[in-house]
Design brief:
The complex is a heterodimer of chains A (about 130) and B (about 150). Chain A has about 130 residues and is mainly alpha-helical. Chain A has a single domain, classed as Cytochrome c-like domain (Cytochrome Bc1 Complex, Chain D, domain 2, Orthogonal Bundle). Chain A has 6 helices and 2 strands, in the order H-H-H-H-E-E-H-H. In chain A, strand 1 and strand 2 form a beta hairpin. The longest helix of chain A is centred in the last third of the chain and has 16 residues. With about 150 residues, chain B is mainly alpha-helical. Chain B folds into 2 domains: about 90 residues, no CATH class; about 40 residues, no CATH class. Helices cover about 40% and strands about 0% of the residues of chain B. Chain B is globular and about 40 Å long. The interface between A and B is medium-sized, with 10 and 14 residues.
Chain lengths: ~130, ~150
Amino acid sequence: MRRTLAIAALLFAATVHAETPRDFLTRFEKEAGSTASAERGARFFTTKQGGEWSCSSCHTERPMQAGRHAKTDKPINPLAPAANAERFTDAAKVDKWFRRNCNDTLNRTCSAQEKADVMAWLLAQK
Amino acid sequence: MKKLIVLPLLLAVLVLPAHADNYSVPKNPAFEAECTSCHMAYPPQMLHADSWRALMNGLSKHFGSDASLDEKRRAAITDFLVANAGGRKTGTTRDAGSQPLLRITETARFEKKHREISAATFKRASIKSPANCTACHAQAATGNYSEHSVRIPK
């Protein structure tokens, strides 16, 4: 009985914290149906696309560093997983912020390809 | 015996003034998780319930930002804000046309307390916006806006 409980607890812990940053790259590549390009990700992240902001307006062009919210000035912890172990570990959080931030910078959702490219670039930061 | 009465009185006197202008935010994990990622926690006490309801009904267009939430969280945070909303001291938080104001910084009470600060001061690079309370009120996160802890940065 105790064994089953322990296994159940382990499985539960595993499902709650299933995601690693790599898992997101795999997921977005699969959704896009093609491989990611870190170079395209860098360009996408740092270029304004008609709106007032690019991703780097708040996360800086060097996501190993902390950023600041372009409007409120509040500090934002680094986005690159190598600099911040909390990043890309929770699917609900990742999906929520892609939805909001893409909307704010592009006035639309980001495509799976764009998200895969950004992931590849962020994962390449050391 | 007399000593026993004096002591609580003394304590009350010491505690009350500090309490009178304390805007500490009641603990609430959903509010903390969802309403403090882009800016500091604004005190629920600074707007009336109808202002909070209006603000929480427009999160996808929140002062030029998308702050949209799933419906369950949105409803839970609205309940928290409404339950802790301002009382009489807060003054009116409606505009001239009687619509609920969404900004603390547009309320009569805020304007009265900051009358001496010019628009140019609020626009300084070190401040950026009147909504950036922490730029001047270093202890704002703990609900302390008292004049003793104010410093306007250059």
